[in-house]
Structures are given as structure tokens and as C-alpha cells.
Prior knowledge:
The chain is 15% helix and 47% strand. It contains five helices and 17 strands. A hairpin with a 6-residue loop joins strand 1 and strand 2.
Amino acid sequence: MQVHVDYRPAFALAKVGLDPGEAIVAEAGAMVAMSDALELETKARGGFLKSLARSALGQESFFLNTFQAPAGGQLFLAPALPGDMRVLELSGQTLMVQSGSFIASSSTIEVDTSWGGAKTFFASEGLIMLKVHGSGTLIVSSYGAIDEIELGPGETFTVDTGHLVTFTEDIGFRVRKVGGWKSTIFGGEGLVVDLTGPGTLTLQSRSEDAFLSWLIPQLPSQNASRGG
């Protein structure tokens, strides 16, 4: 499998080249275009219960699309929001991926929402972390540009939960509110996560929550649209 990302960092498009016999699993709606040699199968990957957990807890699609390439082919993928994409090669590692950032992976990679640490994130601004593990290619996306930070042993970095994309399994984490409740309510900041190395984490330069907090008050109300 060969993956090349064009038009980054604002409007990234992943161009995936599949060798004969290869397959890739992608989020519903991520496909932009594909060659006619590919075969598409839509199913609840991992069975009903795992798919239900991924959909209800992980805010991911209940059904995933598997693109098979009996004779090889090409597939274009893109996220719903403008931003960057990153291609990661896993060799038995485990990575925590923010819900919504998962775009596609090799069929040999498992996506799990049932790991115990996920409970820590469930109460934090809708942030759900998926546990992705196995060997193969993983494609993730970000809202805005994506940045990588390497933490040394014992080094701690604090990240707004709305900007966290991925972190490696060996990183310790603690979710907390910023300052007191006054700062949380009136200061424009919500919950953060303290990440302690060693390990690698990635951030996105924009936050969906922050954008929606700005956008929603700008939308006309029903009374205004009716002239009331």
C-alpha cells in the first residue's frame, strides 16, 4: 500500500495505491474517488456489539467500508472538515486516536473503544479516544494543521482536549479542568489533558468545539428568520 497526501495542510487529500490483493478499511463518507478495479463492501466490522460500541461511544460510523483490490487500484480519501492528514505505519504498536480523526487503515489494524482509559475522556467535551493497534497503515486527519511533539521521560505537556489528535500508549495522561470553574465558564477554556512522557503526541491547530462556540451564536434564530 502506498499513500501520498496532497494539498496539505488546509485541504488534504490522501491518494492510496493498493497492490493486487490488498484491502483498506475506511470511514463512511471518506471516499472521494476510486478506480473501477476496486470492490466495495460495507459492513459492521468486528460484529454488531463492537460496531455499536464504536458508533455510540467512539462517535464513529457504525458501518465501515472495505475497499478490496483484486488487481490493484487507486482510492482517494478526505476528511469532512478542512485540515491535514497524516500517514502512520504501525508495527505492533498501540496508538490512541481522537474520535473523528480516524480515516482509514489496513484491514490488519484493530480499532477498539472498550479500553479502560477511555472512561477518563468520556466526560470531557465529547472527547473520545479510540485504541488503535496492530501492524499496517493508519491514516488520521486533523482540523487545521497537525503538529507532532516528542516527550522525554517524565516530561509533561498540557493540551486542550479539543486539540488532541493522537498519543502513543506509553504516555501517561490525566484529564482536568483549567483553573477554577470561573476560568472554565468565563475564560473560554474547558478541560485539558496532562500528558507525561516518554512518547509522541500530535495536535491539531484548530478546535471543532471552539469553532462551533463561535459559529452558533452567529446563526439567525427561528424568531429572527420569521421576522419576529
